[in-house]
Amino acid sequence: MRLTDFWQRLEESFGVAYAGSLANDQVLTELGGRTIKEALAGGEDTAVVWRAVVAAYPERVPSRLR
Prior knowledge:
The chain is mainly α. The chain has helices spanning about 5-15, 15-25, 35-40, 45-55; strands at about 25-30, 35.
């Protein structure tokens, strides 16, 4: 998954303003206790990060984006 696709999915699922806040502030156990931005900056594959978001917020991510 391209990084631009990742951000599009995150913004579509959470809204533009909240997606940025979520990426900066929310620590996900699925990412080893890192935030989305920390995981991406650390070289984690975008597909792995996306799966972690879906696992953490299954009710927020539309099924077509999973």
